[in-house]
Amino acid sequence: MEKQDLAARSDSGYERLQTALVEQRCVVLDGGIATELSPQHGQDYERLWGIEALASDLDAVRDVHRSYVDAGVDLLTTNTWALPTVIGAGGYIQPAGERPLHWMEVARRGVQVARETIDAAGRGDECAVAFSLNGDIDGPDGPETIALLERVLASQKPDLLLLETLSVVRSSLFAVVEALLATSIPVWLAFRRCPHGLCGVYGQHWGGPDNDAFGRAARRFEEMGVSALLVNCIPPDHVDGMVSHLRDFTDMPLGVYPNLGYHTSAGWRFESEIGGDEYAELALHWRAEGAQIIGGCCGTRPEHIAAARTALAATRPGRERRSQSTTSASERAAMSPRAAPAWSDRRGRSLFPPAFPKLARHPEVPVAAPGSYLLWRHLFEHGIGAHQRCLDIGSGVGLQTVQLALNGASHVHAIDRSDQAIANTLDNAFRNGVAERVTTEVADVYPWLPEERYELVVANLPQVPVDPLSQRVSHSPTDYWGRSLVDQVIKKLQLALAPEGSALLIVTSLLSRERTVELVSSAELVAEVIDWELQNLPREFEEQREHIEQIEQLTDAHTLSIGEQLVLVTYLLELRHSPRGGQQPGGQQPGGQQSGGQQPGGQQRGGRPGPGL
To answer: Which of 290, 331, 357, 499 has the fewest beta carbons closer than 10 A?
Structure first.
């Protein structure tokens, strides 16, 4: 056929589609192409999506096209969806045992085999051809590629260009659309969009609702000269509401063609329960909303399209509004209170979100030391501190102080060596309405001595081992082992704890367990691990990484590792007065040692600590 005849035929093909739309007849698209091809043609590789068959097996492509032509479609799409991906990967398709085929020849073949199939079925005057391109054309070389594509298609001209499975509307996309329109071939655009915004093939949502912005983009596309806007490659139940929503922004013909198949690592999965009759009912549903173009995407088969074609034959586009809600009926049912009970703890308190105190942080006050949230969660979950007099050592921003008061403590006394931290604690106590039960004191734990006894003591203090050679000049003592503050607390619990009281103390895995057991026993206390957690090594610990490695060699301190990433273990200890006057449960002597040499820091190696530590 001569070039002039091809142009005339293309013009008449698109005119037939326009006539159908003007007469309010539904234009029926074909369904999935790649999912109908044999796996040997590469449709299992998502980025090529079956385009390899245009290089190695044109008969297979013809068979798929023929099945849709026989189903009565008005518009047949070429098997060229992945062409922009091929171009971006070097421009050639290399079938097994075949010569490589350049993308320009692939493009020509795509149109040629579609035309030949239509003619062979005797429907040359009834069925048009859409040249398919995916969203990879929206790249730096997109406009230049389109200019080359125009030259290629001069000898095999399609009736329209269909740019499919678009998602984000970037400024570069408008430049690509302008280049497509410059070919003088009509342009249709199809997006993965639902009322929630960006949508994936499984119905997953990639962002928040931005449909006003998308509607404005649709209006701009219309002003540029785009001839139709469609929604494609999303599940059928996510299509609802899009046509009626877009109609508020544009007068362009609107259409839908969702998927019924999902590609997984195990191959294709299909919505087998949706047969032809069910798909026809869905098509009527979209038609009632105003869809003027209806077809199918991945997994939609000829039988689905044939049934939809029959059902749509005598219909006109409706005006039903389905945009009042941004959720489908099935999603609304799944989100109802009866179907989705509140997430709460055993005390009936919300866990989504949890009842976390309202906290502000003053400058220079650390957000949280390792283990702070572990300690807070224990207080929160068990309502610790109710009706008790409590002491918070090292209050920081006041997280534990506030939670104890919220739990119903009769009084909470908070101490910290930083006046900024104490001010922060008081501020947050007022913020949470518990200030009348909170008192504070600026105190350094080294010289500090408790003036009264408490039924509950909580403490989470800095525990960073410091290399003396790396520490700047400071009035604070060098904490070689990272445990100086913890040791001070353990020693002073004898004075701070009421006879039946308990203490909750955070200890990291960088503090020798053996040394902790020795100190606990010497203070005539018993200790038990009641919870623990893991976290990546904090930045301040990373700065002492070489020193930490030395600590691990000298003691039973440890970190865990995931490759080069070190993981810190934080333990929550509960300490109480020993009922045996300093002897640990199980009959062991204080320190839990049997034998072994003296270690740096006064540690004894080789013994077994008492149970619980």
So the answer is: 499
Q: Which residues contact 535 (CB under 8 A, 6 or more apart)?
A: 370, 567, 568, 570
CB 257 within 8 A of CB 188: no
Residue of 443, 447, 446 lying closest to 417 (CA atoms): 443
- The SS3 of residue 51 is coil
Task: Count Cα atoms within 13 angstroms, Cβ side, for 517.
Answer: 26
Q: Residues of CATH 3.40.50.150 domain(s) within the chain?
A: 372-470+477-584
Planar angle of CA 189, 283, 25, nearest 5 degrees: 70
Q: How far apart are CA 35 and CA 130, in angstroms?
A: 18
Model pLDDT for residues 47-93, shown as the tens digit of each residue: 566 898 999 899 999 999 999 999 999 999 999 999 999 999 899 98
Residues near 97 by beta carbon (within 8 Å), at least 6 away in sequence: none
User: 92-93 and 101-102 as β-strands: parallel, antiparallel, unpaired?
Assistant: antiparallel
Q: Which two tokens stand for residue 343?
A: 């997430």
Options 3.20.20.330, 3.40.50.1100, 3.30.470.20, 3.20.20.20; CATH of 3-329: 3.20.20.330
Q: What would the two tokens of residue 592 be?
A: 């839990």
Helix residue spans in 407-464 (DSSP H): 419-431
Taking the C-alpha atoms of residue 407 and residue 455, their distance in angstroms, rounded to an integer, is: 14
Segment 188-236, tens digit of pLDDT: 999 999 988 898 888 888 777 688 999 999 999 999 999 999 999 999 9
Q: With left for phi above 0 and alpha for psi between -120 and 50, is residue 611 left, alpha or beta?
A: beta
Helix (H) or strand (E) holding 229: strand 228-232
- CATH architecture entry for 372-470+477-584: 3-Layer(aba) Sandwich (3.40)
Q: How many angstroms separate the CA atoms of 572 and 298, rounded? A: 53
